[in-house]
Amino acid sequence: MTKLSVNINKFATLRNARGGNMPDLLKVAQDCERFGAEGITVHPRPDQRHIRYQDVWDLKPLVTTEFNIEGYPSREFMELVLAVKPHQCTLVPDPPDAITSNTGWDTDKHQAFLKDVIGQLKKAGIRVSIFLNAQVDKVAGAKSAGADRIELYTGPYAEEYANAYTQPQNLQLFNDYKHTAREAVALGLELNAGHDLNLDNLRFFKLHIPQLKEVSIGHALVCDALYLGLENTIQLYKRQLMD
Ligand SMILES: CC(=O)[C@@H](O)[C@H](O)COP(=O)(O)O
Ligand SMILES: NCC(=O)COP(=O)(O)O
């Protein structure tokens, strides 16, 4: 079974646009769970342009499914995560000014740093996932740094899927995802995926990477919800994830 964690960043973007509390992020998270989400993901960025550090504190007692906090492990981020203690922390190598996440970790180059931060998170009882490109040679570094899971960065997959839409089975890049997933499982790592997954490309990914434990989806899901409604949209995404 693959769990759907709804990334609620973009609801916070909308709220912040007017400075008030509409939509109410806490209600959104609770409604996502009520509508079938099996996790809530947030990605507090240094400029707090969507998720604010206070949101993370406020969400913690309300989230009854899996709470996943994503981000670059800066000192401030680590202090927040270690204090809030979510179920899972996903480490992403984003520079402070990133518009959105656009690559995975080089687990060789940053091995010592990753080992240190993952050690701190694990000591606090937090499961750690690290964001990885579909690069089979970076998986061993995730394992030796102490990660429990990897999250496959699916941005390039989504782009290629859209381009090769008529014959997705010919996707060249997809073999790299398959090999990376296989290597992760062989080394005892669990598998997440995320970024730019949507109602078009999700089913193909799920069918070909059956080891997938969880996907986190935000941007496309929120866009779909504008047309289809949040409850219906969450159900449609869950349908794509059926075994
Ligand atoms: C790690 C990842 O892929 C997501 O967190 C994505 O970057 C969403 O962040 P934004 O909503 O800021 O684009
Ligand atoms: N980890 C990926 C995520 O949380 C959502 O990414 P996106 O669906 O907003 O691109």
TrEMBL record:
Q: Which keywords belong to this entry? A: Cytoplasm, Pyridoxine biosynthesis, Transferase
Question: What is this enzyme's class at the first EC digit?
Answer: transferase
Q: Where is this site: Transition state stabilizer?
A: E151
Output the Gene Ontology terms for molecular function.
pyridoxine 5'-phosphate synthase activity
Q: What is this protein called?
A: Pyridoxine 5'-phosphate synthase
Gene3D superfamilies, per this entry? Aldolase class I
* Residues annotated as catalytic: H43 (proton acceptor), E70 (proton acceptor), H195 (proton donor)
PANTHER family in alphabetical order: PYRIDOXINE 5'-PHOSPHATE SYNTHASE
Give the subcellular location.
Cytoplasm
Provide the Gene Ontology terms for cellular component: cytosol
Pathway(s) served? Cofactor biosynthesis; pyridoxine 5'-phosphate biosynthesis; pyridoxine 5'-phosphate from D-erythrose 4-phosphate: step 5/5
Q: Which family does it belong to?
A: Belongs to the PNP synthase family.
GO terms for biological process, alphabetical: pyridoxine biosynthetic process
Q: Which domain of life is it from?
A: Bacteria
**The reaction(s) this protein catalyses:** 3-amino-2-oxopropyl phosphate + 1-deoxy-D-xylulose 5-phosphate = pyridoxine 5'-phosphate + phosphate + 2 H2O + H(+)
- Per its UniProt record, what InterPro entries does this chain match? Aldolase_TIM, PyrdxlP_synth_PdxJ, Pyridoxine-5'_phos_synth
Q: Mind telling me which SUPFAM superfamilies this protein's record contains? A: Pyridoxine 5'-phosphate synthase (SSF63892)
Residues annotated as binding 1-deoxy-D-xylulose 5-phosphate are R45, H50, T100
EC no.?
A: 2.6.99.2
- What is the primary gene name for this protein? pdxJ
- Job of this protein: Catalyzes the complicated ring closure reaction between the two acyclic compounds 1-deoxy-D-xylulose-5-phosphate (DXP) and 3-amino-2-oxopropyl phosphate (1-amino-acetone-3-phosphate or AAP) to form pyridoxine 5'-phosphate (PNP) and inorganic phosphate.
Would the keyword Nucleus be found if you checked this record's keyword annotation? no
A Pfam family hit: PdxJ
